[in-house]
Amino acid sequence: MDLTKDGFALYALPAREVTAPKIATQLGADGFYSATVDVNGMRGVPVQLQLVRGGEAALMSGASGEPIKLPIRGDDRGSVQITATELLSQQSASSTLRIAPAAPVAANGAASDGEVKKFFARRAPLTLALTPEQQNDPKIKALAARIAAASQKAGRKALMGEIKPNGVVLFPQPLKTSQSFPQWRTDETDLILLGSSGDNPLIFDQKRGHLLPDEENALHVTYSPFVGEYNALNVLAPDAAGLERLAAQIESTN
């Protein structure tokens, strides 16, 4: 048999009419979103997903009726435009995934010694960030040096930074969410912040986002407040005497 002349083609036709796709998203137990595309109730219709977020775009392939894991975490921020195209007749539909993390709840108490130790055991970059006014205060600078030395003793080097544009603070958050605060995007680094909501803009930014309690004179760790996967140790005190006590607590912890 000469298959160049006697061959045949086999086509698998869909069981029902192909209609415009419908998109459903869900957050999985692993912390990532997935999307399931429905094409008139049929499984196995080839589909393509286009994800657009800010200035970034990605293409993914899959089949209707089957979950397609997305590179989007439940603790991400902002909105993602999802366009699904079924590849038999090229019909498309779009949907917007608005990522709304659970509303932040102010901590009920100060960070435990274990939480502080865990913070200093991280291997992410670390910056001890001071405001320009703190930079010019000899007492605050000396306390910052003590905290940096305690961090070094724990095996983690803390670089010094300044809370100002083009310093630690880069720009406002590029993606808008239902939660307006914190509004500042910082460099990709863990932070140690000193002071109170009255004299430190990054502490104030967390306070109005309900990430920090009203009471001060305590250590509090917040998770990804300004940039994903980077945490902050807030040394909360309204004056140098309070900061002195907290610096001593950090030294005793490490």
Q: How would you describe this structure to a colleague?
A:
- By secondary structure, the protein is of the alpha+beta class.
- It folds into two domains: 11-99, Sandwich (Immunoglobulin-like); 113-253, 2-Layer Sandwich (Chitobiase, domain 2), CATH 3.30.379.
- It contains six helices and 14 strands.
- It has helices at residues 3-6, 113-121, 132-135, 138-153, 201-208, 240-253, and strands spanning 22-27, 32-38, 46-53, 56-63, 68-73, 78-86, 92-99, 126-130, 159-162, 169-172, 184-186, 190-195, 218-222, 232-236.
- The strands form four sheets. A five-stranded mixed beta sheet has the order 9-8-12-14-13.
- It is elongated.
- The chain starts with a helix and ends with a helix.
- The relative contact order is 0.13.
List keywords for this structure.
alpha+beta; Immunoglobulin-like; Chitobiase, domain 2; 2 domains; five-stranded mixed beta sheet; four-stranded antiparallel beta sheet
Structural class: alpha+beta
Give the spatial strand order of the biggest sheet. Answer: 9-8-12-14-13
- The CATH topology of the largest domain is Chitobiase, domain 2
User: Radius of gyration, rounded?
Assistant: 25 Å
Element-level helix/strand string: HEEEEEEEHEHHEEEEHEEH
Mean pLDDT comes to 87
* Overall number of strands: 14
CATH class of the largest domain: Alpha Beta
Largest sheet: 5 strands, mixed
N-to-C CA distance: 81 Å
Number of helices: 6
Helix content: 10-25%
Number of structural domains = 2
Work out the strand percent: 25-35%
Architecture of the largest domain, according to CATH? 2-Layer Sandwich
Q: Looking at the structure, what is the overall shape?
A: elongated
